[in-house]
Amino acid sequence: MGHPIATQENRTRIGDTEKITINLGPVDLGQIDLLVQEGFYSNRTDLIRTAIRNQLQAHGDVIRQTVARKSLVLGLQHYSRADLEALRDAGQKLQIQVLGLASIGADVSPELALATIDSVTVLGALHASAAVKAALAGRIH
């Protein structure tokens, strides 16, 4: 589409995190606790985040190439009611493709979402009302 839509940021704000749960064996967990106890990390989460960032950095070239190949938006992408109304009025539809966080305004109705969003592919997190998520369920990949 030739017009700008939504707001993109390359970093999420502090506090914009998603919780994940992992299972570790007692030996791995003990080693993590030892490193925390010895002052290498402030807590378990600090070590795990650092390890994940190191792996993401090690695979940075692959990530960048894949993002470009799949035409993904990297970072935060927000779609407001006004954005979607403009699309509807122009007779256009949107294919949301985001690596990071995609958010759809809380005031977007399920009907407006269905009329303007063809597909949603998010590697990361999708924030939208339960009604919009339910309406788009068949279009979310």
From TrEMBL:
Q: Which SUPFAM superfamilies match?
A: Ribbon-helix-helix
Q: Which residues form a coiled coil?
A: none
> Its GO biological process terms?
regulation of DNA-templated transcription
Classify the source by domain of life.
Bacteria
Q: What is this protein called?
A: CopG family transcriptional regulator
Organism whose genome encodes this protein: Noviherbaspirillum denitrificans
